[in-house]
Write a structure and sequence with these properties.
Mean pLDDT: 82
Strand order of the largest sheet: 1-2
Number of strands: 2
Number of helices: 7
Strand content: under 5%
Structural class: mainly alpha
Low-confidence stretches: none
Helix content: 55-70%
Distance between the termini: 70 Å
Radius of gyration: 22 Å
Shape: elongated
Length: 153
């Protein structure tokens, strides 16, 4: 892998995105996935997630990329656990997770450990977004008294 930055990096990212978009198109055209709700949006979300995991932009998530990303989202795993997760998803025997395998995992009926972790992370992000930021709303003395008198009953 050439780690040149700038224009070359942009070209690598653009090629990867185009490759993943063509796979997304295959899934959109496939009758087996037509009944999935919000398929287009989910494919875009999974593409973004896959690109975040694929740190070296090789088109596959390898052992170290998986380990680093799990640590980043607060779910550190041992080497053995990461290898087991990859083995559970890898259909080609490459010891990596390609995008098709990633999508099959996310859309499949079988609950893999990695899929559960990713869904847990997504729920945690949504909860964080829902939390109210800033100071609590101002209340009058009457409201506070009503609240405390209701608790005493």
């Amino acid at each position: 892998m050439d780690y040149q930055g700038g224009k070359k990096f942009g070209q690598v990212k653009a090629k990867q995105e185009n490759d993943l978009d063509s796979i997304n198109t295959e899934y959109l055209d496939n009758d087996n996935y037509k009944e999935i709700e919000d398929l287009q949006e989910r494919l875009q979300k999974y593409k973004k997630q896959f690109m975040e995991f694929d740190l070296n932009h090789s088109g596959d998530i390898d052992f170290m990329e998986l380990k680093l990303m799990l640590e980043k989202i607060g779910q550190p795993k041992t080497h053995l656990e990461c290898k087991k997760m990859i083995k559970e998803i890898d259909k080609t025997g490459s010891e990596t997770i390609n995008y098709r395998e990633f999508l099959d995992m996310m859309f499949g009926s079988k609950n893999s450990v990695l899929r559960l972790i990713l869904m847990f992370e997504e729920m945690a992000k949504q909860e964080k977004e829902l939390k109210v930021k800033g100071p609590p709303p101002k209340r009058t003395i009457d409201e506070l008294l009503k609240q405390t008198s209701g608790c005493a009953q």
